[in-house]
# Entry
Amino acid sequence: KGDILDDYLRTDGVWILTRNKQSYKTNNEKECAEKCEAERNFNCRAFLFTRKKLQCLTLAENAKMTVTFSSTDAVLYEKKIYLLQCRRGIGKDYRGMEAKTWRGIPCQKWAEKTPHNPNYTPEKHPNAGLDENYCRNPDGDERGPWCYTTDSATRFDYCNIPECEGQVMHTGEGLGPTTECMQCNGEDYHGEVSRTESGLECQHWDTQEPHMHGFTPKHFPEKDLKLNYCRNPDGELRPWCFTTSPTKRWEYCNIPRCTMHPPVSGLGSQCLSGKGEDYRGRIAITKSGNACQHWNTQFPHRHGWIPDRYPCKGLEENYCRNPGGEKRPWCYTINSSVRWEYCAIPHCDGTEQGIADVPMEVPLPEECYRGKGQSYRGTTSITASGKKCQAWNSMFPHRHEKTPDRFPNADLRDNYCRNPDGDNSPWCFTTDPSVTWEYCNLKRCDDHTQEPATNDPPATTEQNVGLTTPTTSDCINGNGKDYRGTIAKTGRGRTCQEWSSQKPHSHKYFTPVTHPRAGLDKNYCRNPDGDVNGPWCYTTDPRKAWEYCDIPKCPPAQYECGKSKFRPKLCAQR
Amino acid sequence: IVAGCISHPHSWPWQISLRTSFGMHFCGGTLIDPQWVLTAAHCLEKSSRPAAYKVYLGLHREGASEASVQKRDVEKLFKEPYRADIALLKLSSPAIINNHVIPVCLPKENSVLGGREECYVTGWGDTKGTGGDGYLKETGFPVIENKICNRPEFLNGRVKKHELCAGNIHGGTDSCQGDSGGPLVCLDQDKFVQHGVTSWGLGCAQPMKPGVYVRVSNYIPWIKSIMENH
# Structure
């Protein structure tokens, strides 16, 4: 477990009156919890801690069993397991207070010998919670908790303990629901198991030691990557975690499987609603008419959506499905040159016949918005300053009220830019904790200038960007080939001859005509031949044909790394 | 680059072309400082002599006919000492920083990418018939967490922790031969940061076979020390 106190329900300012208790002196609540765990005199169900006196009282009873009254300095911690009114799986850890069989016969106390002499007693099984005559499952019986009965004709019988249905509601206010078992692949598992199946402790998701990884809470805010609890953020077979062992990067966890299965919605499953993840209809042909490949085959396309691995995704036959949160149902096709395509599924409201489906190669008209962008339904999810958008149904890092259920017509899908509140343009909450929201990186359609298509011939460099910016200042970079300053004297003080002149020195190799791009203007020092020693010139001294100029080096260029002067296309094929 | 598109000219001003002394392009690289280029070590296998290589900067066309092109000799080359596929080239003289030649940003030491970043690769490499040959192409796709990439149906444990992989699950677009040594950059706020050096792949753009890139953030101390000491 992540934290010993996670197993307890905390209530401030409460004292409970109990008979069976033990007093200790501890420095904090955690130490007190450790005392409770180690208590040998009775089953410790709760503890009280007083901050001023640092008094720790381990208790055999909890608030359900006895009277409570207020006490400002006290904090009551009750073991959640003793507050559960339902059983998880076969109920081996059921510690509730049901004390009669399913037929209504009162249970015999586990410590008594009549009317039945029990094999399972508190002495023999001190950790099985055999208190009073409560239903228990000390032997791991598949049919759940049971008890010896007070009917001499019936030695034992089973109790009617309800199964915790996915979401286990603990008693007590202020404690939210916690999923203690998993459905399907455990993608919705929110429980607190934090050890792997081989017993290794899990690494905290927000640390990079001992294993560096990308599954951070910051990057996956909706995946509930809390503490070091086992989770399934990547569609694995079941929940897992990175381990604290340097030699084992990650391992699966053993999470009990819920016996109740989530219902598949009836109406929605036969037609397209939302992204069609619950579509369970029998359409098996793509929008362009390709027949679908069977999910359980690997031909013609190899893939990872193997039905056995994903029992809840409905990967039957070759029907169109959306197992991975795509835009809508799709399938691999039997056409070896078309790996996959979307399917045309009738919309549940009958208004669309999948007409929104477009082949992935055709860009969607989603790079601009009209008006204030309230009708914008594109998939841009980057703000004007380049921040990534927070998902609308996520409350991390920003809590907000612009949720899909409150704005059902605003299409608040994923983390796409939207304008649910009539703002000036589409916007989103950002994933940057310091910036609540920003407008998105979108243009108004009427301002939009068409980008060249992928296969358009590229414009020439000269048309788009012109020539290299020459150095017009009186300094040189490198060998000064790009120097375009106005120094016109050599290093020894001689005046330069004009490049277009043939007097006093006649020359034919370096003239404005032969080197039109070399900047051979007037009599300025230049380096038309890339001389490693830098710019030079013919001199006006008849005795000296040419000489180097003495031009200072430019200071290092100031630049901002990673910032281009020309906007990239950012073309991506997904 | 398979699929993707022809980039806007000079929109990736840190991209360099690594060439033979005769001027033939064979690998990419990235300008990380006016006088330093980051590339893949396997691009330097043919010769350990710096004189065997030339670096072209500021170009969009592989033909390098633009006036913006700067050419530099390689003064020194440094391969990562533990044989990771990453290397540094010191140019004979600093590149001139202008609108066409700008260094990329490097990531913080050991910074990690989440499994969702949209990143971009560029190069003049093989297009596998998808067009744009001879021009600097680009394509974008997400980084895939190593755990996923190492699944049996993907790269089956071949990806080491000093590497990262990126691509589309269904393939279709990828870096390819000739793009090696070039950058995988991701937008961080308003700057591009180089997180990967194009290294290897199983074919190009194959389904479930994303490309593999050297994880630059693991080599920041090495890069710094080489640049400071040379």
